[in-house]
Amino acid sequence: MKTAPSFDPQAGYLVTAAADFINFSDQTFTDFYQPVLGPAAFSLFYALRSQLVDAPTLADRRLQSNLLVQVNAGQRQVDEGLCRLEGMGIVSTYFQHDAQGDLYVYELQATLTPERFFADNLLSVLLLEAIGESAFQRLAKRAYRYRLAGDQSHLKDISHHFLDTYQVDQRELVNVPAAVKQAQTMASPAPSRSLVTTSDDFDWPTLMALLKGQPVAQDDLADHRELIEVEHQLYGIDEPTMARLIRGALDLATNHFDAKKFKRQVAASYKRVAESSSQTAKQVPSDDKQLTTKDRQLLKSTDNYAPIAFLQALKEQTGGYVTAGERNVLTRLIQDGKLPSPVINVLVWYVIADLGNATLKGNFVDAIANDWLRAGVHDGAGALIQLKKFNQDRQQAPTKRKSGQHGYRRMEVRETMPDWSKQDKAARTKKASAAALAKARARQANKRKEG
């Protein structure tokens, strides 16, 4: 994760690539990554790749302002694009400060194989939401088009092992040659990055108790625990609802858990989230005089919905729908873990319902979220109070904005009126004197003679 909060055009940057970047697939990047990344991050990646040079050194650094020119985008667009690339695990960002200033090193990573992409619960769920079930199934069929259809359990692997075919001098294995040692020291395999952390608020024993006596293999659930918890984090699905979805995803012939069917069920319907047995709704202090009755009603809704479900409920009221980009914005806020779900819901309500925006914009949402984090907002009530404070400050000093304060509201454009409009009506309608009229006629006559 970058130490700096935003993209700095005056900082230097270098582009490197991981050792396995040779396995990068443009086709996989286009089919699997682009729908989730979006066009800005997609083009930014290829702009970074064009900057790769052999054996890069610190002397090869360039100003990041050149990157803005190359992608023909603004600072915020590039910053958001980098966040998306990092979140998808396709770019790793490193930072250092040296005698020449700040330096960012962007290390490009290889794409996952289609099979590993499908196996990653978070990535496959986001892709399914972005492209829909039909396109998702077409990608799966194309990825596995060369695999033998049907049951393969009767096939036995009779392949020869390495030492059955090749002979290696045992002395070379004991005393590894210098060239091999040198090549091994050059390799610095990075630990695999997890795109999502396991949830601490999901009561797994309760889920097991709810499924007790059901025809579902316990080993299946253990193998797919990460998938189940990812869906819980994204949609706030509680244990009873999760148990119902799992029962609906069982293969009736084998009673095995069907992960693909489970993903389709969750993606097809965003369910209202009941309060989990492991969570207690945050209570708004009754003596807080800053909150109105309507505020308290709103906070009850923000406590009872997961962010994506809450956004969909708002969109249904306004006649809109949740876009893939909006899901990505909320997913990023959830993964970051700094703002609780009720605070995120208040933010969503403010942008969509109060301001009347059609969609959630990543840069705008980030500006508000950062402002609330600096103000110490930790619950829905605090978020509403922060909004009230902002509006009060704005009314008291409409022409003077505090340093570092984000203007959430739309700017009120005022036209500069000409000086003559400031005169009173009598001065504007006063008739000219006879002497003034004579001078005006004389000037016009002189102009005609000169012409």
Q: Would you write up a description of this structure?
A:
It is a single chain. The protein is mainly alpha-helical and 451 residues long. Among the domains are: 12-111, Winged helix-like DNA-binding domain superfamily/Winged helix DNA-binding domain (Arc Repressor Mutant, subunit A), CATH 1.10.10.10; 117-144 and 196-277, no CATH class; 293-396, no CATH class. It contains 22 helices and four strands. It has helices spanning 26-37, 39-49, 64-71, 75-87, 114-119, 121-143, 162-165, 170-174, 178-186, 204-210, 218-223, 225-235, 239-248, 259-268, 293-304, 307-318, 324-336, 341-354, 362-374, 380-396, 425-429, 434-450; strands at 12-17, 62-63, 91-98, 101-108. A four-stranded mixed β-sheet has the order 2-1-4-3. Helix 10 crosses helix 13 and helix 16 (307-318) packs parallel to helix 18. The longest helix is centred in the first third of the chain and has 23 residues, at 121-143. The chain is extended. It starts with 11 loop residues before the first strand and ends with a helix. Residues 1-5, 270-287, 400-406 and 410-425 have low confidence and may be disordered.
Brief summary of the model shown:
The chain is mainly alpha-helical and 451 residues long. The chain is built from 22 helices and 4 strands.
Based on the model shown, name its key terms.
single chain; 451 residues; mainly alpha; Arc Repressor Mutant, subunit A; 4-stranded mixed beta sheet; 53% helix; disordered N terminus
